[in-house]
Design a protein that fits this description.
disordered N terminus, 162 residues, alpha+beta, 6-stranded antiparallel sheet
Length: 162
C-alpha cells in the first residue's frame, strides 16, 4: 500500500507542468493522505480519471469500506480531472462533495472513474462512480471544484508538498 505507480499523462501536459517545476504524479497523488490510503491514479485526462484504492486498511468498525475513504478517492479523482481541465494556470479547490453509498465492501480493491459533468472557466464538476471488483456500484459521488488563478507561490508550495 502507498507505492507510487507510474501514471501516463499526455506529453503536452507533462511539458506544461514540467516548465513550472511541478512533478505531476506527486501533484495528483492526494498527497500523504492518498499514500496512506493506497490511492493510485491509473489513468488521467480532463475527460476521464481512473484510480484504485484497497479496502484493507480503509474500513470502519464493522469491517466495511469507510464512507470517508470513498470520499477521499472521489475527491482525489475529481480534483485531478479539474486540475487537468484548468491547466497549469489554475489551481482546483474542492468546494462541494457529496457521496451516496450504495453497498458495503469488505475486501479487495475499489475503482473510481471520474467523468466531467461541467467544465467551465471558474468551476468544474465531476461525477465519480466507485465500483467493487465485480463491477458493482459502491458509491456515486459528485465533486465541484473552484478553478482559481495560480498565484506566484502556488507552484513552489505544490512542489515542496510532493
Amino acid at each position: 500500500m502507498g507505492e507510487q505507480q507510474h501514471v501516463t499523462f499526455p506529453r503536452e501536459v507533462i511539458d506544461e507542468y514540467a516548465a513550472l517545476g511541478v512533478d505531476l504524479p506527486a501533484l495528483f497523488s492526494a498527497g500523504h493522505l492518498g499514500t496512506r490510503m493506497g490511492v493510485r491514479i491509473v489513468e488521467a485526462s480532463a475527460e476521464r480519471v481512473v484510480g484504485t484504492m484497497p479496502v484493507e486498511g480503509n474500513t470502519q468498525p464493522y469491517g466495511l469500506l469507510h464512507g470517508g475513504a470513498s470520499a477521499v478517492l472521489a475527491e482525489t479523482l475529481g480534483s485531478v480531472g479539474s486540475m487537468l481541465h484548468g491547466g497549469s494556470s489554475k489551481i482546483a479547490v474542492g468546494v462541494d462533495l457529496n457521496c451516496t453509498h450504495h453497498r458495503g465492501v469488505r475486501s479487495g480493491l475499489v475503482t473510481g472513474v471520474a467523468t466531467p459533468v461541467h467544465r467551465g472557466r471558474t468551476t468544474a464538476t465531476y461525477e465519480i462512480v466507485i465500483s467493487d471488483e465485480e463491477g458493482r456500484r459502491v458509491c456515486s459521488a459528485r465533486l465541484t471544484c473552484l478553478l482559481r488563478d495560480v498565484s506566484p507561490g502556488d507552484a513552489a508550495r505544490v512542489t515542496a508538498a510532493g
